[in-house]
Amino acid sequence: MRGFLLNRLSQSLVLLLIVSVIGFVVLNLIPGGPLAQFGLDPSMTQDDLDRLKEQLGLNRPLWMQYLDWAWRLVQGDWGHSFRDGAPVLDVIGRHIFATLLLMGSSTIIAIAVGTWIGIRGATHRYSVFDYLGTVGAMVALSIPTFWFGLIGIYVFSLQLGWLPAGNMYTIGDGSALNYMHHLILPSIVLALVHVAIWSRYMRSATLDVISQEFVKTARAKGLSERRILMKHVVGNALLPMITLAGVQLPSVLTGALVTETVFTWPGMGRLFLDSLGYSDYPVVMGLLMFSAILVILGNLIADIAVAVIDPRIRLS
Amino acid sequence: MTAIAANSNLDRWWNSRTARRFMSHHLALLGMVMIALLTLACVLGPYLLPYDSLYIDLRARFAPPLTGSHYLGTDPLGRDVAARLFMAGRISLLVGFSAMLLSTLIGTLVGVIAGYRGGWLGMALMRTVDGFLSFPSIFLVLALAAALKPSPIMITVVIAVSSWMEVARIVEAEVRSLREREFVQAGRMLGLSGTHIMFREILPNAIGPIIVAATLTVARAILMEAYISFLGYGIQPPLPSWGNMLNGAQQYLGTAPWLAIIPGAAITIAVTSFNFIGDGLRDAFDVRGD
């Protein structure tokens, strides 16, 4: 286990290093680079800009700038927002709860519905349900998330008036119920794609497990099909799904960004777009790096969890 | 080597097992028909409709579908939605297709070199693939699209930069497994150059998985273009794309829902079709996994 942990941890560190290099390249592609904010200020003269460039060390070779930038990231100095001067990490911190709430609730929906569709599809292979599930998953993967959101708002908010069309809560009403009410539509919208992915993987994982020897043994022992399914098949089929949950993180974050925009949800995705609109590059860069770190961390946790549950992984 | 022989002759390919399997995949055929119709409509449509996609008629604003000869209604400036939909389709399909070509090219190049050379170079290349995969693609695409000049070509490049990794992984795995096979060793023995072995001897054998991945990449590229154009950082008006047609649609959702429904339906149909075709090709080439 210790060897596995060290190995996996060093992999993540290498990945962080590469991600930071990619991030640094993106930062330097922005016109004006790190000085972009001052270029817009009419009271800044070229002399001022040159002096600032000197002060900030932007005349040094790129690799030195990179080391400096990366070292400050490690220390937690992610720069300050152009908009209100607050430290970037504080700004991100203010928006992370909303995003995690949305991602969490939609993941629960995706796992519950996807697992059910996948297992039923596998146990009733080539049935009408299985066929519709497979085709439905492919269609669901093809629907643009924001369009599904707009249709949802049109039907459930504008026509039926059942659900709010946006925001996280009604101003002046911070009750949990109010939050839940606002959460329903965006989490279903965000969940759609992942229900599709989850159900297809669950279907093939279940099929893999069903054909294994220990299931035959369980059948030979005379256990009921239901008991075999619940006790032997589902548990084993769910194991690779933990890895899948980690792998799916980037796409959940992408979906969250789009969903948050449509539903004016005050999370990280919304913050990212607002910051782009204001050319607030420190926050944009901060979110880019933060989301990648979140993904690397999520994958690390998923792999460790699988290794803890399944000794075959950590021993091989 | 058999793959090269089969590919060099269209008739033999047509009679091959792969072609027969693809032709018996109903959803894939449906997808092919849909894409053909959609492409035809986008190419010919603008010539057949009575309105120009850029013609503004403020007296005819917000006409619902089937008003006179505005078959799909008009937008907030009184422009014909049908005409715009077809012009937008040209852009969206072209961007999606070009982004696929570029990303497949990058991915194949990286994958072949990483798989064939191996060693620290292969390792570094594949870790870079992992690094790119760690970014939620839309964050990367938006940051790049906002930083660079948003021309259609630049958008295509940016989308390709965010979607070459899957092809690279597939090709790398495929090449690595073929590297030690007899025909490659024979090639080395004959004194063929590394480049020749990589691209003329090994690569043709990996063509199946590449085609499957490329088809699915078209689907994803069209979606990505729609996302960033919807958010205002993709194709810029007055040039219409399916994504930017939806850009202002949310504020008119209550009064003019067709502005949101129609372009979104076009995107969904196009992307679904490419996914169906990809699925059919996967079965036909007998490629496992997603």
What does this structure look like?
The complex is a heterodimer of chains A (316) and B (290). Chain A contains 14 helices and no strands. Chain A is an all-alpha fold and 316 residues long. Chain A is globular, with a radius of gyration of 24 Å. Chain B is mainly α and 290 residues long. Helix content of chain B is 70%, strand content 0%. In chain B, α5 (81-117) runs parallel beside α14. The longest helix of chain B has 37 residues, at 81-117. The radius of gyration of chain B is 22 Å and the shape is elongated.
Largest interface by residue count? A-B, 47 and 45 residues
- Classification by helices and strands of chain B: mainly alpha
- Number of helices in the DSSP assignment of chain A: 14
Main β-sheet description of chain A: none
* Number of E strands of chain B: 0
What is the name of the CATH superfamily of the largest domain in chain A?
Answer: MetI-like
What count of domains describes the coordinates of chain A? 2
Euclidean distance between termini CA atoms of chain A? 10 Å
- Class derived from helix and strand content of chain A: mainly alpha
Overall mean pLDDT score of chain A? 85
**N-to-C SSE string of chain A, H for helix and E for strand:** HHHHHHHHHHHHHH
- Overall outline of chain A: globular
Strand content of chain A: under 5%
Total DSSP E strands of chain A: 0
Q: How far is the first residue's CA from the last residue's CA of chain B? A: 26 Å
Could you say what the CATH architecture of chain B is?
Orthogonal Bundle
Fourth CATH level, the homologous superfamily of chain B? MetI-like
Which of globular, elongated, flat, extended, rod-shaped describes the shape of chain B?
Answer: elongated
Helix amount of chain B: 55-70%
What is the CATH fold-level name of chain B? MetI-like fold
- How many discrete structural domains of chain B? 1
